[in-house]
Write a structure and sequence with these properties.
Function (chain C): Part of the ABC transporter complex LsrABCD involved in autoinducer 2 (AI-2) import. Probably responsible for the translocation of the substrate across the membrane.
Shape of chain A: globular
Strand order of the largest sheet of chain C: 1-2
Largest interface: B-C, 47 and 46 residues
Subcellular location (chain C): Cell membrane
CATH superfamily of the largest domain in chain A: P-loop containing nucleotide triphosphate hydrolases
Membrane topology (chain C): Multi-pass membrane protein
Chains: A alpha/beta, B mainly alpha, C mainly alpha
Order of helices and strands of chain C: HHHHHHHHEEHHHHHHH
Largest sheet of chain A: 6 strands, mixed
Shape of chain C: globular
Strand content of chain A: 25-35%
Number of helices of chain A: 17
Distance between the termini of chain A: 35 Å
Distance between the termini of chain C: 16 Å
CATH topology of the largest domain in chain A: Rossmann fold
CATH class of the largest domain in chain A: Alpha Beta
Radius of gyration of chain A: 25 Å
Number of domains of chain A: 2
Structural class of chain C: mainly alpha
Protein name (chain C): Autoinducer 2 import system permease protein LsrD
Subunit structure (chain C): The complex is composed of two ATP-binding proteins (LsrA), two transmembrane proteins (LsrC and LsrD) and a solute-binding protein (LsrB).
Oligomer: heterotrimer
């Protein structure tokens, strides 16, 4: 019996369209898988159903009635529970206290701890047998925390449970336990929505699959009636995109010299990034692809000397150096344009001018008094060069559009002696015009000035268009390298999804 | 030795080892050591009279430390507790008239309301307006000081005779003999402290008690779980205010005066006591009862200094150094661990 | 604050129209409030609105403003920075150097040296504990204040504080040239220098950046810990030097000299429009804030409300301003 039906859901954030036509059907007692590449809209869909976002259009029918949730609490009250990754656990309380947090029962004025412990035990003994529910949450491993988070949602006795990438932090054995529990839960009548980037997991546990691409639902496969064919699924995920056909790849002028500019070796003790080695040639644009959150940002931080848990040794233009702090990278011309421009790349209340000149002050040989006239001139040149649309250099950067903000983040490095440009998803949330300006400029930098570029783009279409070579990352490591003719949006996405 | 008996021998060691590794263990250890040293230095330490005097001198700090612990655990901090205490003493001694016993009752009621008021104002700033606790209680501490100075520009004021029951039951005429002889061994200060402990015991077993820890541990998680974080932090501030109120009763019972500046030094000492008692300044963890241990440790250090013939002037100096040592110690240890 | 004024005086919105440069709006608002205060005070209290009174206000406000500079340096760099030990550093310096100088100019140089060393020590300790050990600045500087006061108490215990400031200091801090207080001859160059450093040197810009967004500054290669450490050192040294001026103003040293300046220094910074989280603000605003607060104090004293009114007033104003700023943050 269908418990939830969503039709024609639309959602946009600013100028970016996240969903143009989202459709979903969930049945009681069934596990529905949501699949799709980065930016396909599947995550947005989950959040809309759970009441985290409000849709701009479309209808949602829950238990036969149309619903419009304004916040997650309303959805919760109707029996819809959403599990993120560790967003609602309190570290200093015990496992059982967390499971009942917010819905404790009391006997008189005192809390009924016995019942709470029983509830926790009932759920966790099946989800994660052997877990001591009296341990404090901060003592748990990330996988155990994720399980407790799930247990907490289940304790609310939802009728529709949405699990958003729950297996990302789990060990293999824990995944098995989770699946067994999900099966049992489904059998008791609960509807479950399950997203994962691991294709084989979805095929193993889900009863049906809804596939998203470019903001729309493109396929619905019911495993009861159709074959479970990974190739079919992958082809739906990558699709036959009309836009990025191989002919569109603008090769530009291939650089003559393939002289190696940078050799990097990363030794990591953290889980989010594995030991990685790579090479970068002069004038080359090296693309980093893969599903979101597979370590791409971490790789770039490491290369910029900004990742304390990781040791990065580079050989640049023949010189060997160890990057321990951001200064080490900057002084050698390795410059980072970070992933979150508002939180990591800009001083939002400060002016465009202040933002652009700031990195200069980190250089040791900078004069005490700022040569204002000279710098203003430089900034005006950069504004013109990158076509930054701003009324004056003194306007606060917060008044600029996303694209222009991103140009400022790039622009602040342009007066430096750039050797390697590290770009972490520079075009995310940027309008098409600014996107094109940025990428064209970067390509010119690479081709004309022999600068090496390492570009992470979550949109594989962009990668396909601009990268000379693509490394696909999965769970912190590099799993594939694509060159030349192999580079296309489909192949990059397919490789990302297929990875194990 | 067969396996079962081996188990019996090994088990206590394991329990002991695990217990010693807790941060609270070092506080308790320090307490016992200092207790011992003081007992040795002070000849009549174990006499009844002397024990009573010890409890009496530590009482205000103990009560303030407990209240401070509650606020800190909820994720805040109260820089105005000393000033609030001073204010309450001024309120009490201004309302009471020596010759009119009923004014004592009025004073009690009014002071209680004023105490609640201070808690509500602080709670409003911390919990609802979300102003950093440090700075909002810094501001309110001056507001309390100002009001206190209005009431009592110089220390003074009056107290009704029966008010001394909060300090020494024998001093009051109408008290039945039973209570008086009880008062020989169990001073009212101790009853106040026990009362505070009972109050916290009850609260800690309710939803509010659990939420105080949750909000202090991770306020976003608490909020997302449906907890009213503003109300929780406000309640923590109000509880603190009640404990400060008890301390004020004791002080006025003991000294029959109100003094707008007497509480100042106690604020930092109460924070020090909380830290020394093993409660994290970041909130979310620790036992309020250990704040008592922390206060006692500070008290004993003061005693030892006194007996070592170091002048009283050094008290503030020492408490400052202790605070720094108490918070720097664990931070340094964490830093060493991170760098490895 | 502006919106409140705009509602009560509709023409205020017109006055502060789009033609009025943005960075001066907050400063102008404070100036306006001060004028209002004097106007109101002049009506209620005879003799309040005289040139003499205003200059006296400026003289006393100068000291608040100087301590406010210490606070501003620490606060602007963000990270919850706050220095509650400034007044106490000043007191200790005054007490120690009084006997060194003993009323003569000869040992002024040594006194300066002692002040410098003391300021460096205090600032170093504060800086290491807050920046490298990551202890909360509030608690550290509060404890430091206690330690400093304890040292003063111990030094003072049993003997009277001897010594007088050198005449140079007295002239600078206490005396007037005609009707003009000499301390302003100290404040004005300091203010000009401070504003120049904040706006036009790399040090100032780095401070603003670190306070505005620690992560962005870090990724641009700035050593955030070192910067914050240095702000405490600067604050300590400055506070110590102000102690010399306090000594010059009072003529003798006593153990509570500086402690009353801590709260006003913070209030002046907040009223002056410097965000407590750091990253922005202007020293000019802090100076105006100091003047406003001192004027308020004088008014309260003139109305017979004395110390009590002063502290209550400070508390209420600080609380009110903090609420307004918190409200602004939430409505965004």
């Amino acid at each position: 019996m269908v418990i939830l039906e969503a039709r024609g859901i639309r959602k946009h954030f600013g100028g970016v369209v996240a969903l143009s036509d989202g459709n979903l059907r969930c049945r009681q007692g069934r596990i529905t898988g949501l699949l799709g590449a980065n930016g396909s809209g599947k995550s947005t869909m989950s959040k809309i159903i759970a009441g985290v976002y409000r849709p701009d259009g479309g209808e949602i029918w829950y238990k036969g009635r149309p619903v419009h949730y304004r916040n997650p609490s309303e959805a919760k009250r109707d029996g819809i529970a959403l599990v993120f990754q560790n967003l609602s656990l309190v570290p200093d309380l015990t496992v059982w206290q967390n499971v009942v947090l917010g819905m404790e029962k009391s006997r008189g004025i005192f809390l009924d701890n016995q019942e709470a412990k029983q509830i926790a035990r009932d759920i966790l003994s099946k989800l994660l047998p052997g877990l001591d529910i009296t341990r404090k949450v901060y003592e748990l491993s990330p996988g155990e925390m994720q399980i407790v988070e799930i247990a907490k949602a289940i304790a609310e006795r939802p009728q529709l449970l949405i699990l958003d990438e729950p297996t990302a932090a789990l060990e293999h054995a824990q995944v098995k336990s989770l699946f067994a529990y999900m099966r049992a839960l489904a059998q008791s009548g609960v509807a479950i929505v399950f997203t994962s980037h691991r294709l084989w997991e979805v095929m193993e546990i889900c009863d049906d699959v809804t596939i998203f691409r470019n903001g729309a639902t493109v396929a619905y496969i019911d495993f009861d009636q159709e074959e479970k064919d990974p190739e079919t699924i992958i082809s739906h995920i990558t699709g036959e995109t009309v836009r990025s056909s191989p002919a569109e790849r603008t090769f530009g002028e291939k650089p003559e010299s393939r002289e190696v500019l940078l050799r990097a070796h990363i030794r990591s003790k953290v889980k989010s990034l594995r030991d990685v080695s790579l090479e970068l040639a002069r004038g080359e644009i090296l693309g980093i692809g893969g599903l979101a959150g597979q370590g791409q940002n971490e790789l770039l931080y490491a290369l910029a000397g900004s990742f304390p848990g990781v040791q990065c040794e580079v050989e640049i233009e023949g010189r060997k150096i160890v990057l321990r702090r951001p200064q080490d990278a900057i002084q050698n011309g390795i410059l980072l344009v970070p992933g979150d421009r508002q939180k990591e790349g800009l001083f939002l209340e400060h002016s465009v001018y202040s933002n652009m000149v700031f990195p200069k002050f980190g250089l040791s040989r900078h004069p005490v008094i700022i040569p204002e006239k000279k710098y203003r001139g430089e900034c005006e040149d950069i504004v013109r060069l990158l076509s930054i649309k701003v009324s004056s250099l003194d306007a606060p950067v917060s008044t600029l559009s996303g694209g222009n903000q991103q140009k400022v983040v790039v622009g602040k490095w342009l007066s430096f002696d750039v050797k390697v440009f590290l770009l972490a998803d520079p075009a995310k949330g940027v309008d098409i015009g600014a996107k094109r300006d940025l990428y064209e400029y970067i390509r010119r930098l690479a081709r004309e000035r022999g600068i090496g570029v390492i570009l992470y783009a979550s949109d594989h279409e962009e990668l396909a268009q601009y990268a000379d070579r693509v490394l696909v990352m999965y769970e912190g490591g590099i799993v594939a390298a694509l060159t030349g003719e192999d580079i296309s949006e489909e192949t990059i996405t397919a490789t990302s999804v297929r990875a194990r | 030795m067969d396996a079962a008996r081996k188990g019996i021998v090994v088990l206590p060691f394991e329990v002991l080892k695990r217990a010693l590794l807790q941060p609270e263990a070092s506080s308790l250890l320090m307490f016992f050591v200092l207790f011992g040293i003081t007992a040795i230095l002070q000849e009549n330490f174990f006499e009844a009279k002397s024990i009573v005097r010890t409890i009496n001198s530590f009482a205000p700090l103990i009560l303030l430390a407990m209240g401070q612990a509650i606020v800190i655990i909820s994720g805040g901090i109260d820089l105005s507790s000393g000033a609030a205490l001073s204010l309450l003493t001024c309120v009490l001694t201004t309302v009471m008239k020596k010759d009119d016993p009923i004014t004592g009752v009025y004073a009690l009621i009014l002071a209680f309301l004023v105490a609640l008021g201070t808690g509500v104002v602080n709670g409003l700033g911390i919990g609802y307006l979300r102003i950093p606790p440090v700075i909002v209680t810094f501001a309110t501490s001056y507001a309390w000081l100002g009001i206190a100075l209005f009431l009592r520009p110089t220390p003074g004021g009056e107290s009704v005779p029966w008010f001394r029951v909060f300090y020494n039951m024998r001093a009051v005429e109408g008290v039945p003999e039973v209570l008086k002889s009880l008062g020989n061994y169990v001073p009212p200060a101790l009853l106040l402290i026990v009362g505070a402990c009972v109050l916290w015991y009850i609260v800690s077993r309710t939803r509010t008690g659990r939420y105080i820890y949750a909000v202090g541990s991770n306020i976003e998680s608490a909020y997302v779980s449906g907890i009213n974080t503003g109300k929780t932090q406000m309640l923590a501030c109000v509880l603190n205010a009640v404990l400060i109120f008890l301390a004020a009763l004791f002080f006025v019972g003991q000294n029959q005066t109100g003094d707008a500046r007497m509480g100042g030094p106690l604020t930092l000492r109460s924070i020090a006591a909380v830290v020394v008692g093993g409660i994290a300044l970041s909130g979310g963890r620790g036992s309020v009862y250990l704040a008592i241990v922390g206060a006692l440790i500070l008290g004993f250090v003061g005693r030892i200094i006194f007996f070592a013939n170091v002048p009283n002037a050094y008290q503030t100096l020492v408490s400052g150094i202790i605070v720094i040592a108490a918070i720097a110690g664990p931070a340094y240890a964490t830093l060493r661990r991170e760098l490895r | 604050m502006e919106t409140f004024l705009k509602k009560t005086f509709p023409w205020y919105g017109w006055l502060l129209g789009s033609w009025f440069p943005v960075q001066y709006r907050k400063a102008f608002t404070i100036l306006f409030l001060t004028v209002l205060l004097y106007a109101g005070g002049g009506v209620v209290v005879p003799g309040f609105l005289t040139l003499e009174q205003i200059l006296l206000t400026l003289k006393l406000a100068a000291f608040i403003a100087l301590f406010g500079l210490c606070q501003m340096i620490v606060i602007v760099a963000g990270g919850g920075g706050l220095d509650l030990s400034v007044g106490y550093t000043a007191t200790l310096t005054a007490v120690l150097t009084a006997s060194i100088m003993d009323g003569r100019n000869a040992y002024l140089g040594i006194a300066l040296l002692v002040a410098l060393v003391l300021g460096l020590l205090v600032g170093f300790a504060n800086g290491v504990l807050t920046s490298y050990l990551k202890l909360p600045p509030l608690v550290v500087t509060l404890a430091m204040a206690d330690i400093l006061q304890g040292i003063v108490n111990a030094y003072v215990a049993g003997k009277a504080i001897t010594g007088r400031p050198s005449p140079v200091l007295v002239t600078l801090a206490a005396k007037l040239t005609g009707v003009f207080p000499n301390i302003l001859f100290v404040l004005i160059p300091v203010a000009v220098l401070a504003i120049l450093v904040f706006e036009r040197t790399k040090w100032g810009q780095v401070l603003f950046g670190v306070g505005a967004n620690e992560r962005t500054a870090y990724l641009c290669g700035i050593d955030v810990k070192k910067v914050r450490f240095l702000t405490f050192v600067a604050s300590g040294v400055l506070a110590s030097l102000i102690g010399l001026l306090l000594l010059g103003n009072m003529g003798i040293a006593f153990k509570d000299m500086g402690s009353n300046y801590v709260m006003p220094s913070i209030a002046a910074v907040v009223v002056g429009g410097v965000p407590l989280a750091g990253g922005g603000g202007s020293y000019f605003g802090v100076i105006l804030g100091s003047i406003f607060l001192q004027a308020l104090t004088n008014l309260l004293t003139a109305l017979g409300l004395g110390d009590a009114g002063k502290w209550l007033g400070f508390g209420i104003i600080l609380f009110a301003m903090l609420s307004v700023y918190a409200g602004n943050r939430r409505s965004r």
